[in-house]
Design brief:
The complex is a heterotrimer of chains A (about 260), B (about 625) and C (about 100).
Chain A (H helix, E strand, L loop, with lengths): L1 H9 L1 H24 L3 H21 L3 H26 L14 H22 L17 H9 L4 H22 L10 H9 L40 H6 L11 H9 L1
Helix pairs in contact in A: 1-2, 1-3, 2-3, 3-4
Chain B lengths: L5 H18 L7 H24 L8 E11 L2 E9 L1 H24 L6 H20 L3 H19 L6 H32 L4 H8 L4 H18 L8 H4 L5 H10 L4 H8 L1 H6 L1 H24 L3 H21 L5 H28 L17 H15 L5 H14 L3 H30 L16 H22 L3 H6 L16 H24 L13 H7 L4 H47 L6 H22 L2
Antiparallel strand pairs in B: 1-2
Helix pairs in contact in B: 1-2, 1-4, 2-3, 2-4, 3-4, 3-10, 3-15, 3-19, 4-5, 5-6, 6-8, 8-11, 8-13, 10-15, 11-14, 13-14, 13-18, 13-22, 14-15, 14-17, 14-18, 15-16, 15-17, 15-19, 16-18, 16-19, 17-18, 17-19, 17-21, 18-21
Chain C lengths: L3 H20 L3 H26 L3 H31 L13
Helix pairs in contact in C: 1-2, 2-3
Classes of the chains: A mainly alpha (about 260), B mainly alpha (about 625), C mainly alpha (about 100).
GO biological process, one term (chain C): ATP synthesis coupled electron transport
GO molecular function (chain C): oxidoreductase activity, acting on NAD(P)H
Membrane topology (chain C): Multi-pass membrane protein
Chain lengths: ~260, ~625, ~100
């Protein structure tokens, strides 16, 4: 695909074909991102727009940036977005109804005016007709040429940006860090709590689930010596899901009979 | 000539004042003795300087002492320097001498007052400030003393400030004095601006070259200062109320010394007034008006201290008139000042003695027949009385008659007018002083049975007796061989004597005596022969009523200055509230209103802010669009 | 083919992203729209580099990517923190600054 893009970029007509094929798709995808109710759909559409842009970069002799675009944006950044979406709730759908009165018409009017002005400005400018092209600049290859610039003219901004990256990483760690409100209880404290609790019934630990060797699964409550099922022996989560099985059928028959005789 | 002891004249009482004020209650037992000792010490130094001065030839008599360089700004150089010349020594001896006597008197008079120590501290402060006033060698040094005596006067008038009326009286004196002080500071500024110096010697030197206009301006401003401090028309209203202070204060500050500072100032500035005839004429006219003004008020007062205060105002009017008559009158103004210092201080102390014996009663209508109970007080007061009305050979006869004579001989209509005013004043003086003496010491007793009039202790009558001696002898001493006139000659310019141009001295004396006798006779007829009502009769003529209201001086001040000032203040308050505060509040309201209006755009929704950013971006792009069009 | 066509695509994508930032309420989608705007700008950079015949535009696009990566990392961490405390990823819910 990269080679195809390079080939297309070298000749004018193929580039035009590629452009007129991809550009409308990118615009549609961007609009879709804007209009979709589900954030996940927005993220997927945005990823598509970014891949399109990567192709555009490569078509415009920016091979390095095209690769970086794919790796950083569609790879890292979009993955991060999706990760956060999972955290926040992937199923939640936004209501597209406007809550601040008058904001949407103003915003759309303003944005359309902005876009119109930009397009009008670009139309007036004499750009592109006398395009220089990057053939000379990329003579030694795009990556060495960029490196030449980055480590000479732009070395100082480059270093500053590295500091910015580290600061951002630290900042994200600080923000995401969850402060404990109270100290973690020690083993001694837990032990005291267990023995000084309401009763000594659970002092030796909660009963294990299962009925003898007949059915030792976690969804079967243990039977107490008097034959009743112990609620404490199964997970509350299983109970909430309704996955607990009655343990009566697994009682030892002799014991049941003895009980019946009595 | 220089002397190293001048500073101690001021330092001793100043030290006493500081010690008494800072030592607190611990000094209550001995504070009055320390104060008296400090005042007495200053008197001894004054006597020493006087004896030294007598031993020198006329040209060598003035001594100076430079203390330190006070102000040194560019061409403006003022030293804190002292100067003791023939004029100053008169004042130094009067201030410290009479001052010490009054300190002694106060020991007894204030013995029942819990704050006697504070009283003596203030008295010492006054002595120090007054000495600085007369010893300063420049107008600026004089100004410090001038303000100092104003402060001491304020503190002492309001000494019993627990009574609101007394505190108000102190405030009134202070405010009236401020008006005069403003005149003095303006005079100093004009002097510096036009003459380039403020020292007496420097101004005297420069005065001959200065323009008459500048000198007249300085003179008028000095006159304003003198009217404030010496209770002259039109700033006279405070003196009557100043009697709120303890009687020794009235005797020392408001009769003998401080109120005569204006006369000192004019006499000291003789070189200015001699070169500015207009200002000098103003001085004489002010003096003449005040001497009649005070005398008329004196006839209507029933309060013994206020009657004496009115008399003081009138007598200082004589001095100012004398000083306003130029070289011929300076010496007589100072002479009258000195003799007045003796007899008026004596009479005030006598009045204090009477009050002391009558449970602080001041209404003369409730006295009567006290000569039997207070023989010494009656004797000393009587001698002062004879001195003030000008009966020969008592002191007032010599000094006052000379002023009348010089006034008549000033020449032209001016001389006749001023002379007649002075002569009429003498007659009225005789009338009201006789009235005071008759109401107090003669006639039948009119006091309650609760009062037990008695003679004052020796500490009180001794100063009175000494002052009475001065009342008797001082005039004779000063005029014998023109001693005081010759003594002062180097300080005040002498001019060819106008004696006998219009009226001969004998004629003046006879005229004055006849008028005095008329005044005395009228008072005897009016008050000795008739029963005195306990309450002042109300069905009296409009003139009497006006005189009782101090010739409407307070009404005038209230109507013209106080009411106008209040209206101005109210208008300023309204202006402040409506315009200045209005502007401030308007700005605040504008900001507040625009803030509330703009606040509605702050919804707190991030998306609306984002939209504003978008609109801003559109603005930018639109700007580029327009620019590249 | 005229390279300016890429610029038109870039302008349109940028506008769509801007609308999304203002209109959408889900913070994650808003973030995606911001990313779209950054990518649109990158496309313009790359195209300009080609038009002008030097690689500075590509370097700029490279830096933009780095900054965008930083922004995503920190921004998503903030979203997670807010979600943890408010149980909501809507940007309208975090409007406590009003009034």
């Amino acid at each position: 695909m990269i080679n195809l893009a390079i080939e297309v970029g070298k000749t004018t007509t193929p580039e035009a074909v590629m452009f007129w094929f991809l550009a409308p798709l990118a615009i549609v995808a961007a609009l879709g991102m804007l209009l979709s109710k589900k954030a996940v759909h927005s993220a997927i559409l945005l990823a598509w727009v970014m891949i399109t842009l990567a192709i555009f970069y490569i078509a415009q002799d920016a091979l390095f940036l095209g690769i970086v675009q794919v790796v950083v944006y569609t790879g890292a950044v979009m993955m991060l977005f999706l990760f956060i979406l999972m955290l926040v709730g992937v199923d939640s759908a936004d209501s597209l109804k406007e809550t601040i009165p008058g904001l949407r018409p103003i915003a759309i009017t303003a944005a359309v005016g902005f876009g119109g002005l930009m397009v009008s400005l670009l139309g007036r400018a004499t750009l592109g007709s006398d395009m220089v092209g990057l053939t000379d600049a990329n003579a030694a290859g795009n990556v060495p040429a960029l490196a030449q610039l980055l480590f000479s003219t732009y070395v100082w901004p480059f270093e500053v940006v590295s500091a910015l990256l580290i600061t951002a990483a630290l900042g994200a760690m600080v923000l995401a860090h969850n402060h404990r409100l109270v100290a973690r209880p020690t083993q001694r404290e837990l032990s005291i709590k267990r023995f000084r609790g309401e009763s000594l019934g659970s002092a030796a630990g909660l009963p294990n689930p299962g009925v003898y060797a007949l059915h030792n699964a976690v969804d079967v409550p243990a039977l107490l010596p008097d034959g009743t099922a112990s609620e404490a022996s199964v997970s509350a989560m299983l109970k909430a899901r309704g996955d607990v099985i009655d343990s009566k059928p697994f009682q030892l028959i002799e014991l049941a009979n003895e009980e019946g005789e009595k | 000539m220089t002397s190293n002891y001048l500073v101690y004249l001021i330092a001793l009482p100043l030290l006493g004042s500081a010690l008494l004020l800072f030592a607190g209650r611990k000094a209550d037992k001995w504070g009055h003795l320390l104060g008296t000792a400090m005042s007495g010490g200053a008197f001894v130094i004054g006597l020493y300087e006087f004896s030294q001065m007598l031993g020198r030839s006329t040209e060598q008599r003035a001594v100076t002492q430079k203390l330190f360089s006070w102000i040194s700004v560019g061409s403006f150089q003022v030293d804190a320097g002292l100067m003791l010349d023939q004029l100053s020594i008169c004042f130094v001896l009067l201030i410290t001498g009479v001052g010490t006597l009054i300190h002694i008197y106060s020991i007894a008079y204030m013995s029942h007052d819990l704050d006697r120590r504070r009283f003596f501290a203030y008295l010492n402060l006054f002595i120090a400030a007054m000495l600085l006033l007369v010893l300063g060698d420049s107008y600026l040094n004089l100004y410090v003393g001038w303000e100092g005596v104003g402060l001491a006067s304020y503190l002492l008038i309001g000494f019993w400030n627990q009574k609101p009326t007394y505190a108000t009286a102190a405030k009134k004196a202070f405010v009236a004095n401020r008006v005069g002080d403003m005149g003095l500071s303006l005079a100093i500024m004009i002097a510096f601006a036009t003459l380039g110096t403020v020292s007496f010697a420097g101004v005297k030197e420069q005065a001959s070259q200065a323009s008459t206009g500048a000198l007249t301006a300085i003179g008028i401003m000095l006159l304003v200062a003198a009217t404030g401090k010496s209770a002259q028309f039109p700033l006279q209203a405070w003196l009557g109320d100043a009697m709120a202070g303890p009687t020794p204060v009235s005797a020392l500050i408001h009769a003998a010394t401080m109120v005569t500072a204006g006369v000192y100032l004019i006499t000291r500035s003789n070189f200015i007034f001699d070169a500015a005839p207009t200002a000098q004429l103003c001085v004489a006219i002010i003096g003449a008006i005040t001497l009649l003004f005070g005398a008329i008020i004196g006839t209507a007062k029933d309060d013994i201290k206020k009657a004496l205060a009115a008399s003081t105002m009138s007598q200082i009017g004589y001095m100012v008139l004398g000083a306003g008559l130029g070289p011929a009158g300076y010496a007589f103004a100072i002479m009258h000042l000195l003799t007045h210092g003796f007899f008026k201080a004596g009479m005030f102390l006598g009045a204090g003695s009477v009050m002391h014996g009558m449970d602080d009663e001041v209404n003369m209508r409730r006295y009567g027949g006290l000569s039997k109970f207070m023989p010494i007080t009656f004797a000393t007061f009587g001698l002062g009385y004879l001195a003030i009305i000008g009966v020969p050979p008592f002191a007032g006869f010599y000094s006052k008659d000379k002023i009348i004579e010089v006034a008549f001989n000033a020449g032209g209509i001016k001389g006749i007018t001023l002379g007649c005013a002075a002569l009429l004043g003498a007659a009225i003086t005789a009338f009201y002083m006789t009235r005071v003496v008759i109401l107090t010491f003669a006639g039948s007793k009119r006091w309650d049975d609760k009062a037990h009039p008695h003679e004052s202790p020796v500490l009180m009558w001794l100063p009175m007796a000494l002052l009475a001696i001065g009342s008797v002898a001082s005039g004779f001493i000063f005029t014998r061989g023109n001693s005081l006139k010759n003594w002062l000659a180097p300080v005040v310019e002498q001019s060819p004597v106008h004696e006998g141009e219009l009226l001969k001295p004998e004629v003046v004396s006879v005229l004055a005596l006849v008028l005095v006798l008329l005044g005395v006779g009228l008072a005897v007829v009016k008050y000795l022969r008739k029963e005195i009502p306990l309450v002042a009769p109300t069905n009296v003529s409009i003139f009497t009523r006006i005189a009782r209201r101090d010739l409407l001086q307070d009404d005038f001040n209230e109507a013209v200055f106080m009411k106008t000032g209040q209206k101005l203040t109210k208008a300023l308050v309204v202006t402040d509230k409506s315009i200045i505060d209005g502007a401030v509040r308007g700005v605040a309201k504008l900001v507040q209103g625009s803030g509330s209006a703009l606040r509605t755009t702050q919804t707190g929704f991030v998306r609306s802010y984002a939209m504003w950013i978008l609109i801003g971006a559109i603005g930018l792009v639109a700007a580029i669009w327009v620019v590249t069009l | 083919m005229n390279a300016a066509n890429y610029l038109y695509v870039s302008a349109l994508l940028f506008t769509i992203g801007a609308i999304g930032v203002v209109v959408r309420r889900n913070a994650i989608v808003v973030f995606m729209c911001v990313e779209l705007m950054l990518n649109a700008a990158n496309l313009a950079f790359v195209t300009f580099a080609r038009i002008n015949g030097n690689l500075d535009g590509q370097v700029m696009a490279f830096f933009t990517m780095v900054v965008a990566a930083c922004e995503v990392v920190v921004g998503l961490a903030i979203i997670v923190t807010i979600y943890r405390s408010r149980r909501s990823a809507s940007v309208d819910d975090a409007s406590l600054l009003k009034r």
